[in-house]
Amino acid sequence: MHDHFELDPSVTYLNCASMSPMLKSVREASMAALELRANPWRMTKDDWFADSEVLRNDVATVFKTTGDNIAFAPSASYGMALAAKNMNFKAGKTIVVLDKQFPSNVYTWEHLVRQYDLKIVRVRKQDDKSLTESILDAIHDQVVLVAIPNCHWMDGSWIDVEKVSQRVKSVHALLVLDLSQSLGALPIDIEKVDPDFAVAAGYKWMLGPYGLGYMYIAPRWQHVWEPLEYSWLPRYKSEDFSKLTDYTELFKNGARKFDCGEYPMLSIRPMAVAAVKQIVSWGVDSIQSYTKSLTLIVNQYNESNGVATREHVGHIVGIPFGKRDPNAVKKILSAQKLT
After folding, report:
1. Which of 48, 70, 77, 262 is buried most, with the most CB atoms less than 10 Å from its CB?
2. Distance between CA atoms of 116 and 329, rounded to whole angstroms?
3. Residue ranges of the chain with pLDDT lower than 70?
């Protein structure tokens, strides 16, 4: 697998949770995209639209859904803002998030808390329960929204989002998922989980460029929700450049209505196409199995040192520092050329 990436043979890179290494195929796609950008007279309609649909359908394969349920976003926070725009809550209700959740999936909801006079509960893992069980305990009939990942970005703690979804539905609340730290590395059947909305950044486990991510909008909301912005590109028959001033209120099918402005992203989309094609080729199950073989080494280290490891996904694991000074640990690692 190392040979597929633009990595020096002497480098072992294990920080895909921050930013993925670059596939050789992605670099080749980026060079071709820049060459086309340098010669814009060569661009065709297919350069604008055809590859976007290829990407949409391949991303749908990773989500285990259809392309009609996928839209493009520049970031996870964009997706959260889209979801929040379409929510309206009564004062006094509760939003549930995780303690120390990544800020892209927090700031939007803190804004809603101020806007609608809501409460926010930050769930910590209880000592005698799993993180999933702790979340389930926090969901009651005053909860209107649960906004969580399916693994914690700090230590990979796994969350059974199917169980959470069932509990959320039982109290008639909404479920929003941030899959930035799992999509592409951890299998998910999004239609089985059935959240109202999900989003993932594309530059981590999806192995793509910075600036292009992916949204899932449940079919039940596609004709109800409004897009975050009103671009011409998601409009019906926008590919016919000769009729762009024949203004229409109609959108393209499904979640395409929610595509961000300039979603063809001509200079970086080809990189994403190459990246997701490789993920589909390898298979997410195989990727999870491979990464699990690596984090198993950390588990064995933890066990040999009497450190308990939380139930975690195969591609992210934590080593608790306890009372150690993180800065001191960082210096020790740096001295060993570990960054």
Report:
1. 70
2. 43
3. none
Structure tokens at 58: 């391949």
Closest CA to 171 of 246, 78, 96: 96
**pTM: predicted TM-score of the whole model, two decimal places:** 0.95
Pairing of strands 213-217, 174-178: unpaired
Mean pLDDT estimate for the chain: 95
Phi, psi of 231 (to 5 degrees): -75, 160
Contact 63, 216 (CB under 8 A): yes
Name the CATH topology of 45-282. Aspartate Aminotransferase; domain 2 (3.40.640)
Residue 306 confidence (pLDDT): 78
End-to-end CA distance of the chain: 21
Helix, strand, coil proportions of the chain in percent (round to 5)?
40, 15, 45
Measured CA to CA in angstroms, residue 44 lies from 40, 41, 152 at distances of 9, 8, 43
- The pLDDT score that the predictor gives to residue 185 is 98
Instruction: Supply the pLDDT for residue 330.
Output: 84
Give the integer Cα–Cα distance in Å for 180 and 200: 4
CA distance 204 to 328: 27
Q: For 55-85, how does the pLDDT look when each residue is reduced to its tens digit (9 = 90+)?
A: 999 999 999 999 999 999 999 999 999 999 9
Q: What is the pLDDT of residue 190?
A: 99
The CA angle 124-157-21, to the nearest 5 degrees, is 130
Report domain extents, the chain.
45-282
